[in-house]
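Protocol step 6 of 9: fold each sequence in the batch and record its structure tokens directly after the sequence line. For illustration, a two-sequence batch is reproduced in full.

Sequence one:
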Amino acid sequence: QVQLVNSGGGLVQAGDSLRLSCAASGRTFSTYAMGWFRQAPGKEREFVATISRSGARTVYADSVKGRFTVSRDNARNTVDLQMNSLKLEDTATYYCAASSNLGIVTNQGAYTYWGQGTQVTVSS
């Protein structure tokens, strides 16, 4: 069992950076792969990034590759998403999620636990 709390969202201008955080409770955090998803108004929730249990492997959506970086600290039960060079199309509610599935997965159906989400709004 794990509880996830999203934080770090806000209003920024295009080209700016923002760091989102996800804090997990429980003592089994390191057994979960962690993912980031986002959902813009009128659009389906989409995959953003994921990081393996140890943090050794990461996978990014093509739309954010080279701009976003996901990291985790299993000692502190946290996972972060560093967002650089933000674009207008990055505007969305961002969610962290935990998956007990073996191996790296990008589909949201593989993630069992979800944070409450945090709003990121990018303006020009």
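Sequence two, same batch, same settings:
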Amino acid sequence: QVQLVESGGGLVQPGGSLRLSCSASGSIYTIHGMGWYRQRPGKQRELVAHITEDYITNYEDSVKGRFTISRDNPKNTAYLQMDSLKPEDTAVYYCNFRIIIQPANQPPANYWGQGTQVTVSS
């Protein structure tokens, strides 16, 4: 009923930038929080950035000042602007939205994107 589609990953040199997008479609009533997670090789999935429906943001310490999360509610889309990328940012990045689907009398649930690979290497 709900699908999240990510785009924007790729290969970039250290110090470079990428912008990830995640768009939700389907029987959506409203979207609460939107988050970006990543899973680095050999590591557990971790929260990188999150934005509430009131546009309150928080970031994992290692990306503060380099990454910026934003959202476009009419488009049901979240973005992650990643600047000053480092090799240790190499990971598969996943979006996660907390969504209430139609009809609106259901509790919110978490939905995941399929993941997009970000590789930072010279």
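Proceed to step 7 once all outputs are recorded. Observation for sequence two: The chain has a mean pLDDT of 96.
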